[in-house]
Structures are given as C-alpha cells and as structure tokens.
C-alpha cells in the first residue's frame, strides 16, 4: 500500500494541494513551509494552513533530459487558487501554454505522487 504524501490530500480521489496563506498580506504558497511569509515576514499564528485546488493554467514548460536519456516535461502552473507551482506534466496528451491542467494521483514506487495533465 503506497504511503501518503505531505504535499497533498485526497478529497473524493481528487488531490488537493497542502499550502499556506499569510493572514496579514494574503500571499499564498505551496508546499506547506511554515518558516515565514516571504512577502511581509509574518510567522507563527499568522500563517494559516490551507488547501488549494490542483487545477490551473499552464504558463511555461520545458523538456528535461535525464542521465538515462529519457525526457520529462517540467511545467509552471498558475493554480486557480493563486500560487504558481512547478510540476511534472503527463505527456500523453500535448499541452499548450494557457491550457487548463489538472492533477491526478499515480503510484510512484512506495509513494503516491501527482502528475498534471490536460483537463
Ligand atoms: Zn505575508
């Protein structure tokens, strides 16, 4: 049985990303790092854990060649809920800039992972 992730939680099999919102300046970010707000410096109780939709818009992508000669596509996604994340795209369906993408869960060895793909 794959283990769970600190990066997302499943709600009805849909991955929700575990992030943070600063209650002072409302900056949002992912993953859930609680060291402090990089915009206003707030910390502690001013940082509120929250979840973000795993759907968003592709704003950039790049093919990355690995040492074994295989490629994967790394993408920047502007989530519907705010923060920009970087994620691996599932290449089965070609994706273009401004396309809407959504995450699904895969088993990656002993862990669960998410991959973004065209909606
Ligand atoms: Zn802040």
What oligomeric state is this?
single chain
The structural domain count equals 1
**Overall SS class:** mainly beta
- Strand runs, count: 9
For the record, give the distance between the C-alpha atoms at the N and C termini, rounded to a whole number. Answer: 27 Å
Percent of residues in helices comes to: under 10%
Order of helices and strands: EEEEEEEEE
Give the overall shape, derived from the CA principal axes.
globular
Strand order of the largest sheet: 7-6-5-8-9
Secondary structure layout plus pairing:
Layout (H helix, E strand, L loop, with lengths): L7 E4 L2 E9 L5 E2 L17 E7 L1 E11 L5 E9 L4 E6 L10 E9 L2 E8 L1
Antiparallel strand pairs: 1-2, 2-3, 2-4, 5-6, 5-8, 6-7, 8-9
The structure holds zinc ion.
Characterization of the model:
By secondary structure, the protein is mostly beta strands. The chain has one domain (8-118). It is 0% helix and 55% strand. The protein has no helices and nine strands. The chain is globular, with a radius of gyration of 15 Å. The model has no long low-confidence stretch (mean pLDDT 88). Bound molecules: zinc ion (ZN). Residues 22, 24-25, 27, 37, 39-40, 42 line the site of zinc ion.
Task: Describe this structure in a few short sentences.
This protein is mostly beta strands.
Sum up the structure in keywords.
119 residues; mainly beta; 5-stranded antiparallel β-sheet; 4-stranded antiparallel β-sheet; globular; binds zinc ion
